[in-house]
Amino acid sequence: MSASGVTVQYRVAFGKKDEVIEGPDDATLVITVAAPDATLDPQIAFMRGKLKATGPTGELFALLQTDEVAAVLSRLSTR
Questions:
Q1: pTM for the whole thing?
Q2: Which of 23, 49, 51, 55 could form a disulfide with 45 if both were Cys (CB 3.0 to 4.6 A apart)?
Q3: Which residues face 32 on adjacent strands?
Q4: CATH, domain 8-76, list 3.30.1050.10, 3.40.1440.10, 3.40.50.20, 3.40.120.10
Q5: Is residue 40 exposed (0-12), middle (13-18) or buried (19+ Cβ within 10 Å)?
Q6: Are 60 and 31 in contact (CB under 8 A)?
Q7: Is 22 helix (H, G, I), strand (E, B) or coil?
Q8: In a 10 Å sphere around its CB, with 0-12 CB exposed, 13-18 middle and 19+ buried, how is residue 33 labelled?
Q9: Taking the C-alpha atoms of 77, 67, 10 and 2 in order, what is their torsion angle to the nearest 10 degrees?
Q10: pLDDT digit string, tens, across residues 4-63
């Protein structure tokens, strides 16, 4: 859960039907990225269309201002 109280689910895809998921299934915000792109700065990945998100955009932008997204995606992208 982020500081604003929004629940977040992170998904790092390694291949078709092969992904690592962290967070509740009923999360307010779902962030998805392919494993090779998980090491990019999340803001840059989002601007390039590599990081996808569903949910409130304002909450996503607030979360991207923190180090949380980069830390979680980096951890999930290493097996």
A1: 0.90
A2: 51
A3: 11, 52
A4: 3.30.1050.10
A5: middle
A6: yes
A7: strand
A8: buried
A9: 150
A10: 678 999 999 999 899 999 999 999 999 999 999 999 999 999 999 999 999 999 999 999
